[in-house]
Amino acid sequence: GTENVPGIAGFKIAIQEAFKNSLEHTTKVMGLKQSLSASILSQIPRVKINGPRIEEGSAYILNMGFEDIRGEVLLHALEQQNIYVSTGSACSTRKPQPSSTLQAMGVDLKYSTGAIRFSFSSHNTMQEVEQCITVLKHIIPRLRKYV
């Protein structure tokens, strides 16, 4: 078949642009992740980072466990405030049991059942992080009343 030469040339330019700014994007995103995790840990009790230390993991993903809250309930409460998170990987969606990955990592059940995954991109802002913290500080105590 005929090769899509314009598509190949366009893809080359897109890749060059992505790599040109990748270090800047990763640095920005890591700052957002560090800010969100530090604020949550300092302002909300009974929360744990599920995974490696912040600087050792991916800049783009943060998994945190909230004790005495079901992850799915927290996900929907955040969704109502236009904050979109996930409770696990795409391949585990709709499975009611705790994440097998978190179990294999030795994460205590009280944190793995309340696990939320925050994902970041270079399009996120510090204002969004601050909004997320504000919302979490409001809804976490309310949700814990129903345990």
Tell me what portion of residues adopts beta-strand conformation.
5-15%
Helical percentage? 40-55%
Average of pLDDT: 88
Count of distinct strands: 3
Per the principal axes of the C-alpha atoms, what is the gross shape? Answer: elongated
Distance between the amino and carboxyl termini: 61 Å
Q: State the strand order across the main sheet.
A: 1-2-3
Give me the strand/helix succession.
HHEEHHHEH
Q: Find the structural class using helix and strand composition.
A: mainly alpha
Secondary-structure blueprint:
Elements: H1 5-20, H2 22-43, E1 47-49, E2 61-66, H3 71-79, H4 100-104, H5 109-112, E3 115-119, H6 126-144
Antiparallel strand pairs: 1-2, 2-3
What are its keywords?
three-stranded antiparallel β-sheet, mainly alpha, 3 strands, 147 residues, 10% strand, single chain
General description of the model:
Helix content is 51%, strand content 10%. By secondary structure, the chain is mainly α. The protein is elongated, with a radius of gyration of 18 Å.
